Amino acid sequence: MAYLWEALKTAIHLIVTLDPEVVEITWRSLRLSAASTLLATIVCVPLGALIAFHSFRGKRLLLNVIQALYSLPTVCVGIFVYAFIFGRGPLGSLGLVFTPTAIVIGQAILISPIMVGLTVSALSGVDKAIRDTTLSLGASQSQAIWAIVKEARFGMGAALILGFGRAISEVGVATILGGNIDGFTRTITTTMSLEYNKGEFELSMALGIILLLVALVIAMMVNLVQQRR
Question: What are residue 23's phi and psi, to 5 degrees?
Fold first, then answer.
């Protein structure tokens, strides 16, 4: 028990003194997760809007599949993407294996179901009277859709925040696609796993505390967005 207390104190010291290794790993994780969220947003928000604004056969089944993929195992995504980008894969010539770009792509795929599903929910939750009223006032179809998007902006914002939270807390994709290379692709979660396996708890605890703080900030931001909604 005394050893754990000493490890915790050392971990807090690393955070308070802004240890270069802790800062580097944390910044890299934030940067990669933000890039993944941006990439997923560019693809998933228009896709979610397309699903929300159109009725077609199998729509309910599609939404059920999307929601089932919310808990998609990170290892499965990592293996799937690796099969495409490794040396003999279809995209092997691009040299993406064990690079930050591979992590960004994998994390973007991982969070895509969450962002599509929550975008659909946010847009579908807007009162249909808003669209009808906008059209009756002479607005075009695109202007009516934009009015709905503005009404759903807080729900869509929550989707982005939750997508970021899912990306920064995953470990399977970062390990398989990034290779956990020191100074290049090592993230918070992969470092925690490595340090734990080595029996070195100080750095692992420090990064764990940071990850918990990030999770707390994300939860507060989601609650704030939902209250404003």
Answer: -65, -45
Tell the CATH superfamily of the 2-228 domain. Answer: MetI-like (1.10.3720.10)
Question: Which residue in 125, 137, 86, 78 sits closest to 105, CA to CA?
Answer: 78
Hey, what are 139's tokens? 């607005």
3 state DSSP class of 1: coil
The confidence score (pLDDT) of residue 157 equals: 84
Report d(CA 165, CA 150) in Å as an integer.
23
Report whether pLDDT(59) > 60.
Answer: yes
Structure tokens at 77: 């995504």
Per-residue model confidence (pLDDT) at position 226: 63
pLDDT digits (tens, 9 = 90+) for 168-177: 999 999 999 9
- Tell me what the mean pLDDT of segment 42-70 comes to: 91
* Nearest-10 crossing angle of helices 153-169, 100-124: 150
First to last CA, the chain: 46
Enter the tokens of residue 51: 């699903």
Q: Does residue 56 sit in helix, strand or coil?
A: coil
Closest listed residue to residue 108, CA positions, set 38, 53, 156: 38
Distance CA 165, CA 19 (A): 24
Q: What is the CA radius of gyration of the chain?
A: 21
